[in-house]
Specification:
With 84 residues, this protein is of the alpha+beta class. The protein has one domain: Metal Transport, Frataxin, Chain A, CATH 3.30.920. Helix content is 39%, strand content 19%. A 3-stranded antiparallel sheet has the order 1-2-3, with helices on one face. Strand 1 and strand 2 form a beta hairpin. The radius of gyration is 12 Å and the shape is globular. InterPro entries: HicA_mRNA_interferase.
C-alpha cells in the first residue's frame, strides 16, 4: 500500500465523514488490500475482500464519493477486518 492509499484509508475512517474523497481513490485502496472487483450493470461494482462482499454504485456524474458511500466503504472494510 502506498502513501496515497494509506491517506485514503485514514480519510475513510475519519470523522466527520469526508465529502471530497474521490471514488477512484477508494477503489485503489480496495485493490491494494487485495479485493477482487466484480463489475455489474451500469455503475454497479462489487468487491470481495477476506470473504466479505460489498456492493457499491460508482458516483456519477461527480467523481467524489457521497458521504453515505464513504460510510458504506468504512463498514465494508471493518467487516473485512481492515482498520487504519
Amino acid at each position: 500500500m502506498n502513501s496515497k492509499q494509506r491517506s485514503t484509508l485514514k480519510a475513510v475512517f475519519s470523522s466527520p465523514t469526508s465529502k471530497s474523497l474521490e471514488w477512484k481513490r477508494i477503489e485503489s485502496l480496495f485493490a491494494a488490500l487485495g479485493a477482487n472487483a466484480i463489475e455489474g450493470n451500469g455503475s454497479r461494482v462489487r468487491f470481495e475482500l477476506n470473504g466479505v462482499v460489498g456492493t457499491f454504485h460508482r458516483p456519477h456524474p461527480d467523481k467524489e464519493a457521497k458521504p453515505y458511500q464513504v460510510r458504506d466503504a468504512r463498514a465494508f472494510l471493518e467487516q473485512a477486518g481492515v482498520t487504519p
